[in-house]
Structures are given as C-alpha cells and as structure tokens.
C-alpha cells in the first residue's frame, strides 16, 4: 500500500451526506471515494495537457477570425 497522508477538507453538508450514503451502499470508505474522484480529475488533467501538447503546432484561430469566417459563409 502506498504512503497515506491525513488532511482536512471542508465539504458542503449535503455533499458529505451523499458521500456517506454512497460509501455505505458500495461498502467503501469516504476516503476511497474521495481518492478515486481526485485520481480521475488528475487523470483528466493529464489527458488535457497531452492533447494541448499534440496540438501545439496547429495554427491559432482567433474568435474574431472565426466570426468573420462564419459571416462570410452566411452562417451568421
């Protein structure tokens, strides 16, 4: 098992109740549920950063140029 660190987080009361209920329903601890949620969020961030890196050499399209193109094509 990896090293564990203790921390304090402040949750909305309704969110805390929902977590407690889910923990009971799934036979898991609140800590496990929170760790999984954080892990998924960090994994999504890693995917986003990888996608940005893959597209770093693509030309930049400004909002103004996109609007101009849409007007020219009769879509606005």
Automatic annotation (TrEMBL):
- The Ribbon-helix-helix protein CopG domain extends over 5-43
Question: What's a GO biological-process term for it?
Answer: regulation of DNA-templated transcription
Would you say which domain of life the source belongs to?
Bacteria
Q: What is this protein called?
A: Ribbon-helix-helix protein CopG domain-containing protein
Organism for this UniProt entry:
Citrifermentans bremense
List the lineage, top down: Bacteria, Pseudomonadati, Thermodesulfobacteriota, Desulfuromonadia, Geobacterales
């Amino acid at each position: 098992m990896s090293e564990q660190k203790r921390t304090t987080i402040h949750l909305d009361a309704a969110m805390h109740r929902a977590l407690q209920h889910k923990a009971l329903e799934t036979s898991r601890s609140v800590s496990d549920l929170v760790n999984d949620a954080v892990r998924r969020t960090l994994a999504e961030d890693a995917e986003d950063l990888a996608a940005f890196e893959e597209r770093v050499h693509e030309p930049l399209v400004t909002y103004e140029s996109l609007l101009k193109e849409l007007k020219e094509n009769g879509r606005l």
